[in-house]
Structures are given as structure tokens and as C-alpha cells.
């Protein structure tokens, strides 16, 4: 079982996400997240998924696209660090990703298929990383991070957004 990262394996805003993950296998958490996200988004029509709870907020389709895009970025960081690449990795502009993706033109079904493919790839990567690589560190977004921390960031980031979806989108 991949254990929770120690306090010296992450910093900055990443701790907010890591702290949302329960004390359990991160693979179990990712599977629970996948089931919950799929159940939540699959019941939406394309029209419902274009809903924004405020004019300047992302639509539900954009949130789902953001989850997949961010998981791709975080998995790439995890891979690089696990493989011993210490080249500093830059941050990314999530709003630029949203504005250039045109998720609104896609269907919920297509976005969910993409999300599921990304999750399958992430799980495969996590299972392939040798034990000694999990505590290797690198720099991402000007923050020193371990490979292990990124597995937890992926899970916690998704928990964060699923909570927002339930509280601000589906309750509206």
C-alpha cells in the first residue's frame, strides 16, 4: 500500500488536496472517486452539464474536463519525479486550459470516456512505479514534491471539485 506522504514531501497549496484524502490506499480512493464522479456526471444531460452556478464559473462539463486535464498534468509530474528527473517543472494555467479546450461542444458521454481513460492510465502508472521511487523528489510549480505526493494530489484535487459540484452546482 502506498502510504501518505510525509510533511516534507509537499508544500504550498498541494497540502490542501493531500489532506482531503482519507487514511487508506490511494488506489482505493481513486477508484471510489472514479465511481462517484462517473455516477454524478453520467446522470446529467448535455444541457444540464452546461450549467454554471455563476456567470464567471466553469460549467459542469468544464469541471469534468478540468479533472481530466489536471490529472494528466499531475500524473506527468509524478512520472518525471519517480523516474529521477529533477528538471524543475513549471506550473500551468488552468483557466487557459479551459478556455482553449471547448468542453462545452463535447458531450458528457465523451468527456466521461476521456476522464475514465485518464484514470485508467493513472492507476496503471501508480501500479508500475517501484517502491523506492515514491519518495524521490523534484520541483513542480516552485514547490519541492515527492512522486508519492502527486498520487495524493490527484485524489484530493478530485475530492475538492466533487464537493464543489455537489454543494454549488447540484444544490442550485
UniProtKB/TrEMBL annotation:
Top-rank taxon, per record: Bacteria
InterPro entries (alphabetical): DinB-like, DinB/YfiT-like
UniProt xrefs under SUPFAM superfamilies: DinB/YfiT-like putative metalloenzymes (SSF109854)
Gene3D superfamilies on file: dinb family like domain
Transmembrane region(s): none
Domain DinB-like, chain residue ranges per copy: 29-164
Protein name as annotated: DinB family protein
Species of origin: Paenibacillus rhizovicinus
Lineage of source species: Bacteria, Bacillati, Bacillota, Bacilli, Bacillales
